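Ticket #4471: structure output looks truncated?

Reporter: J.K.
Steps to reproduce: submitted the chain below (233 residues) through the standard prediction queue, then opened the result file.
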Amino acid sequence: MLAAAPPLAAPPPRPSIVGSAEAREARRARPRRRGARLVRASSSSATTTQEVYLDVSFGGADDAPPRRFVFALRPDLAPRTCAGFVALLTGSNAGVDPSLTYRGCAFEPFGGKYAHVVRGLGATIHGSKKFVERDAMSRTRRSTPGAGGGVYYGEEVDLDLDPDATVVCVPVAGPGYGGSRFAIVRVGDSPASLRQRILTNQLVLGRVTRGRDILFDMIQAERPVEIVGGGVL
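Returned output as attached by the reporter:
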């Protein structure tokens, strides 16, 4: 009588990587079909801001403390120009060239009482070339709010969301282009007929988050308002 054949051994279980980090990463990178078009999963980029300060003096009494602006810059939109602006604000390169700082520069009115300009000491804020962020301009081209249209770049100015919008900007064409000039502009307060003039051909680096009251006092100032310091918060 023949002996019964031994039962077949069960195959060893296949290793599962369903829950492993490698498997999850592979699934995220795998193309997905959406409708008739193949797209890749992508993560949304968060808004990046850099807080800096600018101290100004109205002159007069020697013991009068300086007053402070705080800006929220957008290096995610214009990294090179923001880096150059911060270097001039802090004076980090003034030891190499005394003109590479905003300290000692004064504000001048521009566009009536709605904008104030600092012309700088001749230093460029755009890098070694006249303007190096054409890619940033092509990505952030926007229409100016107000009458007549016009184009500006950088951070969006939406007066519906922020009716008191006050911005820091630098020129990308016209007077001051390629130099260290920058302006603080009360876009929301200005008449619609002026918004095109004061925003067109500007790159908006960020917002004024503190110090709007200083701008109103600058309108009445009897002496030039001078920059006495600046830095990163």
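Triage note (M.O.): checked the attachment and the full token line is present. The CA atoms of residues 71 and 208 lie 5 Å apart.
Status: closed, working as intended.
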